TrEMBL record, chain A:
Signal peptide, first to last residue: 1-18
Domain of life the protein comes from: Bacteria
Protein name: ABC transporter substrate-binding protein
Listed InterPro entries: SBP
Xref: Gene3D superfamilies: Periplasmic binding protein-like II
Pfam families (UniProt xref): SBP_bac_8
Keywords attached to this entry: Signal
Biological source species: Marinomonas phaeophyticola
TrEMBL record, chain B:
Record SUPFAM superfamilies: MetI-like
Main location: membrane
KW Transmembrane (keyword) present: yes
UniProt keyword list: Membrane, Transmembrane, Transmembrane helix, Transport
The name this protein goes by in its record: Sugar ABC transporter permease
Amino acid sequence: MIKKIILPILLGSSIASASEVVFYSTQANPLKEADAMRNDVLINFDGEVKFLPQEAGPFFSRIEAESRAGSVTLGVLGALHGQFPQIQDSLDSIDDVLGSVPEIKSNKTMSELGKLGSQNQKYIPWMQATYIMAANKKALPYLPAGADVNALTYDELAVWAANLKEATGDAKLGFPAGEKGLMHRFLQGYLYPSFTHSVVTDFRGDDAKAMWAWFRDLWQDVNPRSTAYSLMQEPLLTEEVWVAFDHTARLKDAFDQRPDDFIAFPAPSAKAGRGFMPVIAGLAIPAGTPDRAASVELIKYLSQPEVQVKTLKATGFYPIANVELPADLPANVRIAGKAISMQANAADALPSMLPVGLGDMSGQFSKAYKDTFQQIVLRNADIDQILDRQAMVLKTIMVSANAPCWAPDKPSDGVCPVN
Amino acid sequence: MNIKSYPYILIAPSILFLLAFFVYPFIEVFSQAFTTSNGEITLKNFDTIFNDFNFLPSLKNTLLLALVVVPVQLCMAIGMSLMISKMKKGRDTVLYIWTIPLGISDLAAGIIWLALLDQNGFLNSFLFSVGIIDGPESWLNYNNPVAIFAAIVFAEIWRATAILLVILVSGIGLIPKEYYEAAEIFGANAWVRLWKVTLPLLRPSLQTALILRTLLAFEVFAVVMILGGTNMPVLMGEAFNWAFSYRDAGAAAAYAVVILGLSVAFTLFYLKVLHVPKEAQI
């Protein structure tokens, strides 16, 4: 026990001994989750594994540096779908591994995403999550008349936010628009699809213009501290906000700490449908890894249904494998799980895929949306002008990445067009 | 071993250290700023950052911060060092206490000030408990750029005045007493002595202190990130974002070159304005 868990943590060393698989991950980075990964999830792996979670920036730098220097020490890489394209050139093709994890392979949509738009499998889907809404139960009496919280529209959300502000004197709706918040995913996977049935192609269409005007109006009733929020569970727990949108893993603490005070519900819908975006984390093997067979074993181990359930308990990310969830799950899974399935199975559900094929332009793709949001909503700039300008930026990104369209945009011949 | 080579041997480690960790990365960054990822020479990286929404605001914020923070700190540091130099007892204790903030990392300093000024922070609780406000007020938000700016200025002054202070204290210690005695004989009062004796003779120290502090002001990052976040872009923060969030090392390098250009310009300015001819040095 001491040798396997405590020593590596104490030493914090990243030099792998011969038989040890270094599992380098941007996920399960918070101390508590990392501990749970080591003590509950990886403990039964038949072999030595060192779990090293890391922030995204240094994560990329190290992989790039090792790959350029030609001395790779890492065994398995765990990261988000949106993060892999940036290190795509350093990844080994692992079509053979996909064949040996039938539980994962049977989920066709997701294992296809693992090709990152190329011919070969680049990562094996590991776990998934999505973004939902959460509300303090105190906010429920202020819902507009006739609105069903589980089938909300964006217009009803706006009325709700206005009601809350009028009743409490404070803006109680919050978004994660801070430095490390995931606001861009709300724009790409929720707002744009719901209003325009598009993410890229109709970036500056009339629907998009109306959407931004609407969103700017809504923002009057949004807590102004939103530009400092990264994880919405914090302002929910302090009750600075009562209604919030965020990643399920970033709402987890609120549900776990006060399960009786909070509810989860699907994201709202607008005229094009109820846009929502899955989040997928995957496992990859860096090209030139010291012990590929051991890395493959670790991926196979993490793909087992019972280990996927343990991972869910540790990180709040749901299994990719089709598993029956046991009854003894933590509160956040019980609360969020229901909302997730309602969101995915709603009659007007409009799944929006994660960006594919952007390579290392992924960061700038998200920046394009964040900048548009900042200029239009926060700095009150002219909508037409900003959308025209940002459409050019988006076009440049799509062309230099040579990326085709992904859902909900219609499939394209070649580069995804920006109208 | 030849005794003449001792000094060179003794400074060699620090020179090697600087070559490896300063000069080499500097050359790398410089060349990265002017090349594409394929190695062609280009100004595209500068084009990218100049056309970005955040470039002008970040340049403006950085310069404004330096222009507000540095003069205030300079006046405070001169005042504090004069007080210290007049102290007979407890001088070291006071100096230690005043330099405590220097020992705190700027990230930690930002967190301390956020804990004070935050919506649920100490300042709010205090104002609430004495009945000045009715509930927690959030000051540090994007509707309130002046408040964010003021908070950052406050935190920076608190954190980094001591850098100027320690340099000026040692500078004042170097001024010979005879000058003051002579000035007093001619009837100069304390104010005249400050302007005619202390400040002119302090010029070399002022120069060092100002260069050091201004360069650090251009590199302000962690405090701004904590207190201002995306609401208050600064050059260093943008360089960080381009490097790590947007994954464009060329653009980040271009930001670094802009910061370097500013630093060189201000250093030359101070060198010229506060120049002391060799024959006038003490």
